[in-house]
Every structure is written in structure tokens, then in C-alpha cells.
Design brief:
The protein is an alpha+beta fold. The chain has 8 helices and 6 strands, in the order E-E-E-E-H-H-H-H-E-H-H-H-E-H. The strands form 3 sheets. It has a two-stranded antiparallel ribbon. It has a two-stranded antiparallel ribbon with strand order 3-4. The longest helix is centred in the middle third of the chain and has 11 residues, at 77-87. It is globular and about 35 Å long. It starts with a strand and ends with a helix.
Length: 147
């Protein structure tokens, strides 16, 4: 792959062959880094299948089924962390309940929003330390519990 005249094999950050590379200016030096996201970790086909299962706002969202359908339960801890970081919209290091409203839309722009009761259900199952937010380890545990 060539980016800005550079030929690259692996991302300098994650050591994978990047699908969406970007050149970042870090302290006057340019480094090549891939932009990892939900859509680079999970297949479009699996995401579409999971979104379709919960697109009807009258159906109740089940995170376990969703994680299974989209293939997240079979991914590595590093991949789960990439998905967590993409869901953390404000980059605070946590997923807060307001961010969960757009949970499905992080996987597909045309997906529906989660209802307040669906968001509260996820928080009740994921927020083990009851601090009102989901940390990376809590998210990883939630995904692993969904297997």
C-alpha cells in the first residue's frame, strides 16, 4: 500500500497491515499509522446481520446476541479494545450512558438509536464498579460474557 509516497507493510502502532492509513504529524516527524475502527475489525456482512436483527425499534436490544451476530465475541482482546475506543465518542476512556444512545449508529450510520431502557440495561450489566460509566475492562468482560 502507498500513502503520500510511502510504501508500507504494517502499521507502526498496531503492527497490522492497515486498511485505512493516515499520516500523522507527531512532534515534527511524520509517522504512518492506520486508523482502526469497528469497520476494520468486523466484517460489513456481520455488522449488517447484527444491525438488521435489531433495526425495529419495537424489538428489544440484546447486547449478547448483537455481539455474537457481529462477530465481536470471536475477536481478540486487542480487537475488542479497538471497538471500545470507537464507541467512546468523546475519547474520555469510558463509555457513558449518553454515548450508548448512538451505540448501533457507531456500527452503521443508518441504524436506530437505543432507547433509554436499552441503555440502562447495558449499563446495569456492564458497569461492574457502578461508577456510571463503562471502562475498557468492563466492556471486554461484557463481550466475553456474551460468548
Amino acid at each position: 500500500m502507498k500513502v503520500s509516497g510511502w510504501s508500507i507493510k504494517d502499521c507502526i502502532t498496531c503492527r497490522r497491515t492497515p486498511q485505512s492509513p493516515a499520516v500523522l504529524d507527531l512532534g515534527g516527524r511524520h509517522q504512518l499509522r492506520c486508523i482502526m475502527s469497528i469497520k476494520t475489525v468486523l466484517s460489513k456482512q456481520d455488522i449488517d446481520k447484527a444491525i438488521a436483527a435489531f433495526q425495529d425499534p419495537d424489538s428489544s436490544f440484546c447486547y449478547k446476541t448483537f455481539f455474537q451476530l457481529c462477530g465481536l465475541t470471536s475477536k481478540s482482546p486487542d480487537d475488542i479494545k479497538i471497538v471500545f475506543e470507537d464507541l467512546d465518542r468523546d475519547k474520555s476512556g469510558f463509555i457513558e450512558e449518553p454515548e450508548l444512545e448512538f451505540f448501533l449508529q457507531r456500527f452503521d450510520d443508518n441504524a436506530r438509536k437505543l432507547s433509554e431502557s436499552e441503555r440502562q440495561s447495558i449499563m446495569a450489566h456492564a458497569d461492574y464498579d457502578q461508577d456510571g460509566k463503562i471502562g475498557a475492562d468492563e466492556f471486554k468482560s461484557l463481550v466475553e460474557y456474551s460468548k
